[in-house]
Amino acid sequence: MTIDKKETKNSRKPINEESPLLPKNHATEEFKFNAKRASFTASVFNISTSIIGAGIMALPATMKVLGLGLGIGMIVFVAILTEGSLEMLLRFSRVGDSQSYGEVMRDAFGRAGRLLLQICILVNNVGTLIVYMIIIGDVLSGTSSSGIHHAGVLEGWFGEHWWNGRTFVLLVTTISVFAPLACFKRMDSLRYSSALAVALAVVFLVITAGITIIKFFYGSIAMPRLLPNITDITAIWNLFTVVPVLVTAFICHFNVHTIDNELEDSSLIRPVVQTSLALCSIVYVLTSFFGFLLFGDSTLDDVLANFNTNLGIPYGSLLNDVVRISYALHLMLVFPILFYPLRLNLDGLLFPSARPLVVDNLRFGLISIGLLLLVFLGANFIPNIWDVFQFTGATATVCIGFIFPAAIALRDRHGIATKKDKILSVFMIALAVFSNMVAIYSDAYALFKENHPRV
Distances in Å between the alpha carbon of 363 and those of 16, 33, 261, 337, 350? Predict the structure, then answer.
């Protein structure tokens, strides 16, 4: 960062509930929601939880497309680009005295820029939360999205009943788990659930690695492909379909300002971001490696659905259930971290001049209920997480993560952008636009061929 530490701390505005994601007229309200300063560790857990979500379940499937060598290289590459985009975003926030991503966009592009960002966050977070519910439904009630039925945990334990059907299970989960967690009005209030969520992700990784190592010594695992299997031009275009998944896996930009505003020392935000990205990259690389090594070309779009087969090792059935349940619980705890900015952005979009959401319990409750209902319906009508990743990742997510931060640096209203910033910004925009256009084309072409096989 180029801003002096003392100057940064002295120039920080008072913290309030709305400042992270809503326009400045909310920040000028008489009511100020003074949050307790969050620690370095709590902030790392909250950013890590923002990053590690459903993306980890789709990453082994990207290895099936890219091969293990290229796939792991791409994970590291996207992590480095993400750190660069966050560094520029935070630097321009400091110079423009902006307390939120939305304020930085408004500073650079006016009200239209803030409005566009809010819409993208709504699309991204609604899509991601739908993916969370889909995966939880897959784990507890099973899935048939691949054409083969994979039984859920409850079906395996008790057989098929109306009460362990997908719709009823998701309804109970929404009412008993998501709704209470969505009621918190401060991000730092979620620090313990975030720590537990990260721990559960590590549990999933450790068990998956253990199963893979045991099967490797049994000699029942073949060496994985290190590079993609290229047979024709269609296979080349298909490589780009993983880009939206990789971008979605590292998105956390909509929560960084909130966490920065609650951090006890704002000069620590960059080390917090770097620590979180390093932690998440390690988890992603190891999960992708062991997940693809374990299931190979049979890896499904949601790798959790693979954990209902006979693993061929002692206590395999028990380990299957532990893996699936631990990650379903992880997603339940991640849910409020993404729901928090979603609610604030929708409120800012619909009621830009209203009093702060934290003091209006009726508006807070109605928006929360409406969003929970929307996500619940989406999870029941969209059967496959890959479809959601492709739509949100190729549109809203890539804008939030790369295009908007790069555009802010190129706009450079305060004259602080370096030559390196501008080169990186042009590279990020060109790469994001090209790769995602190809991904959208490839998905549309595959869908067309599926519906018209003789063409």
Answer: 17, 17, 24, 19, 11
Q: Are 358 and 364 in contact (CB under 8 A)?
A: yes
3-class SS letters over the chain: CCCCHHHHHHHCCCCCCCCCCCCHHHHCCCCCCCCCCECHHHHHHHHHHHHCCCHHHHHHHHHHHHCHHHHHHHHHHHHHHHHHHHHHHHHHHHHCCCCCHHHHHHHHHHHHHHHHHHHHHHHHHHHHHHHHHHHHHHHHHEECCCCCCEECHHHHHHCCCHHHCHHHHHHHHHHHHHHHHCCCCCHHHHHHHHHHHHHHHHHHHHHHHHHHHHHHHHCCCCCCCCCCCCCCHHHHHHHHHHHHHHHHHHCCHHHHHHHHHHECCHHHHHHHHHHHHHHHHHHHHHHHHHHHHHHHHHCCCCHHHHCCCCCCCCCHHHHHHHHHHHHHHHHHHHHHHHHHHHHHHHHHHHCCCCCCHHHCHHHHHHHHHHHHHHHHHHHHHCCCHHHHHHHHHHHHHHHHHHHHHHHHHHHCCCCCCCHHHHHHHHHHHHHHHHHHHHHHHHHHHHHHHHHCCCC
Both tokens assigned to 307: 């954990």
Provide the token pair at 364.
């807070």
201 CB-near residues (< 8 Å, 6+ apart): 52, 56, 283, 327, 330
Judge whether 65 and 238 are in contact, CB under 8 Å: yes
- Token pair in block for residue 143: 């899935």
Angle of the 361-381 helix axis to the 101-141 helix axis, nearest 10 = 50
> What's the rounded Cα separation, in Å, for the pair 400 and 381?
26
Residue type, 137: G
Please report the domains of the chain, with CATH numbers, ordered by start residue: 5-99+131-384 (1.20.1740)
Half-sphere exposure of 255 (CA within 13 A, CB side): 30
Instruction: Express each pLDDT in 173-211 by its tens digit.
Output: 999 999 998 888 777 777 788 888 888 888 888 888 888
pLDDT of residue 91: 93
- Kindly state the average pLDDT of the residues 304-325: 80
Q: How confident is the model at residue 147 (pLDDT cuts 50, 70, 90)?
A: low
CB 407 within 8 A of CB 433: no
Rounded to whole angstroms, how far apart are CA atoms 383 and 301?
A: 11
- Beta carbons within 10 angstroms of residue 216's beta carbon: 15
Q: Is residue 383 classed exposed, middle or buried when 0-12, 13-18 and 19+ CB atoms within 10 A define those classes?
A: middle
Closest CA to 222 of 294, 305, 306: 294
